[in-house]
Amino acid sequence: MMNRISLNQMTTRRWSMEKDFQAIDDLGLKNIGLWRLKYEELGESETANLINKFKVNVSSISWVGGFTGSHGYLIDDCIREAVQVIRFASWVGAKTVVVATGEQDKHIFSYAQKLVTDSLMLLGDYAKECNVELAVMPMAPATARGWTFLTSLKKTTEFLKQCDHPNIGLCLHSYHALQDSQWKQILPQLIPHIKLVKLCDGASPKRPRKQCLPGQGKMNLPGLFETLESHNYQGLYEIDTWCEQHWKSNQTDQLRSSLNSIKDWLAVPSSK
Question: Domains plus CATH for the chain?
Fold first, then answer.
């Protein structure tokens, strides 16, 4: 069970790289999700050395994207940057590179979608050669500004049909997915496309303003696990929580409590 759980470095944003890896070792985890700002600051070689030292697997690297040009970057530059990340992912054995498409900006939706689809199809071919998968991550509308135009599971389903590439799929983030009123109806058909599930909770069940660690909020994470597991999702679950309160902590106690909740949710579907 622990082999299916990972910890993303955004959850421990203010910790050092060494502390991240030590915490994963202390918690008995086997996987880490790398955050680019951290590993680029330390250096790729030094990061690879830590991965080898602690004998962990890299579940994902976040982020690449911005292919709509909404941040003012040229699309060719975004593609070149993504190629570098995919190359590094291949080197350290990362399974997935998470994609933020870029927001719609001033484009009509169909053109924004075409910009991203064309970019990802090109990168998907390279990712296939490198044995890496690309996973677009939809976000709830209130949070998506500056990140992505994929603001619902329905839009994401249509987008993935447009791509139709074996190395392009979905990164499902629980905090965003559970705010989609249609998640129970749409999620089963998306499960074959899921490359990674990121886990986060919220203080209220429907439209939470703040994130918190899984098991510390009121979102329907048990129901999400039941849906995923009962429809044969067999991939990784990665704790990815952006929480100011947790970022101020130096302790792993809250993470350990969250892990216990995740293990309980994982155990329920398998016992049916």
Answer: 2-270 (3.20.20.150)
Cα(79)–Cα(128) distance, integer angstroms: 15
Instruction: Report yes or no: 211 and 243 within 8 Å, Cβ to Cβ.
Output: yes
pTM of the predicted model as reported, rounded to 2 decimal places:
0.95
Q: What is the DSSP string of 115-172?
A: HHHHHHHHHHHHHHHTT-EEEE----TTT-TTTBS--SHHHHHHHHHHH--TTEEEEE
Band of pLDDT at residue 268, cut at 50, 70 and 90: confident
Rounded mean pLDDT, 91-105: 96
For residue 188, what is the DSSP state? H
Could you check whether the bond before residue 63 is cis, i.e. omega within 30 degrees of 0?
yes
Which residues, in sequence order, are CB contacts of 271 under 8 Å at separation 6+?
Answer: none
What single letter denotes the amino acid at residue 65? G
Please state, in angstroms and rounded to a whole number, the distance separating the CA atoms of residues 139 and 162.
19
pLDDT tens per residue, range 181-217: 999 999 999 999 999 999 999 999 988 989 999 999 9
| Cα 137 to Cα 132: distance, rounded to the nearest angstrom | 16
pLDDT tens string 207-256: 898 999 999 999 999 999 999 999 999 999 999 999 887 778 878 999 99
